[in-house]
Specification:
alpha/beta, 7-stranded parallel sheet, 3-stranded mixed sheet, 10 helices, 19% strand
Length: 340
């Protein structure tokens, strides 16, 4: 059997490092080439399950390096791209927006332009044998801006990004859209809600709560803790990406959300309660006593929530985890990781 090579970008990051082992294990006819720059957010230890797998190859490199991307396409005959690689931390985008514009906008452009030239003869014309090649762009619900207390983001919601991070992701979404409309390139885009689960970088909200609790430090919560997010367990997200990559309609966008709206107060309260049971404090007190409120960040969107009806109805996707089942698995994983 001839293997089909696909390029996964950012596969050492949080979502990518959950997706790659899942995909390699599920499909025996793919060779997965994972390119990751290994910035602070990438960690090869997250890929220990596949590091010696015969159908998996890791390449350290930058998606903005056009020569490297061209070489990877030519040497591996790449037939599909699943594009996770991105700078994604909103606070960092406020301090240093430059790298977000370069990686998220120019990196996406470089990848899709190399793919177009490798797969296509001319606009609307694929090379013989390359007609099913596909570029899957992974994006975020933050491109839609913020919601009031009611309503949900749909695929038709106008873009209204409020941070340099979300502006850079919105720009990359438009680059991908333009390649479908201008060149007739086979593309799909998925916009997801807040992911959580194993392998997430320690700076993000849920790992931070667990880490600070276990180390006896104050647990910082922005503002008054009423900001609301729709929480999506990372493996449910991976299954949604897999489904859209294989069955999504060309040029379409699919929202992937967990239907698990929770505010930050609920998140921290739930995690502290789980830790009180699973890893009681040596002080004999509840971890809830460590919760502190800190100044809200600039441009902090109040609420995100995704309507995943299109993905559910058209492709049959459904989240397997609700927040309570998913967060329990997540806390168990981090207790082992932090080994305290």
């Amino acid at each position: 059997m001839r293997l089909k090579s696909i390029l996964v970008t950012g596969g050492a990051g949080f979502i990518g490092s959950n997706f790659v082992p899942y995909f390699v294990e599920k499909y025996s006819d793919y060779h997965v080439i994972n390119i990751d720059k290994l910035t602070y957010a990438g960690d090869l230890s997250n890929l220990s399950e596949v590091e010696n797998h015969p159908r998996y190859t890791f390449v350290q490199g930058d998606i903005c390096d056009r020569n490297l991307i061209e070489k990877l396409f030519q040497e591996n005959d790449i037939r599909g791209v699943i594009h996770f690689a991105a700078e994604s931390h909103v606070d960092n985008s406020i301090k240093n927006p430059d790298s977000f514009m370069v990686t998220n906008v120019m990196g996406t452009f470089t990848l899709i332009d190399v793919a177009r030239k490798y797969w296509m003869e001319a606009p609307k014309q694929y090379k013989v044998g390359y007609e099913d090649c596909l570029f899957h762009h992974v994006s975020t619900d933050e491109v839609y801006g913020t919601l009031g207390e009611t309503g949900l983001f749909t695929e038709e919601t106008p873009y209204a990004p409020n941070s340099p991070y979300s502006a850079s992701k919105a720009s990359s979404d438009f680059v991908v859209r333009s390649y479908f409309h201008t060149y007739g390139m086979r593309v799909v885009t998925t916009n997801c809600s807040n992911n959580y689960g194993p392998k997430q970088h320690k700076e993000k909200l849920i790992p931070t709560i667990i880490r600070k609790a276990l180390s006896g430090e104050n647990i910082p919560i922005y503002g008054d803790g009423t900001n609301v997010r729709d929480w999506l367990y990372v493996l449910d997200h991976c299954k949604g990406i897999d489904l859209v990559f294989h069955k999504g309609a060309m040029g379409e966008t699919y929202n992937i959300g967990g239907r698990n709206e929770r505010n930050n107060l609920y998140i921290v309260d739930t995690i502290c309660s789980l830790l009180d049971t699973m890893k009681p404090s040596t002080k004999g007190t509840s971890y809830k006593e460590q919760i502190t409120f800190v100044t809200d960040r600039p441009g902090h969107d109040f609420r995100y929530a995704i309507d995943a009806t299109k993905l559910e109805n058209e492709l049959g996707w459904k989240a397997d985890e609700n927040f309570e089942t998913g967060v329990k698995k997540t806390v168990e994983w981090y207790i082992k990781k932090f080994q305290v």
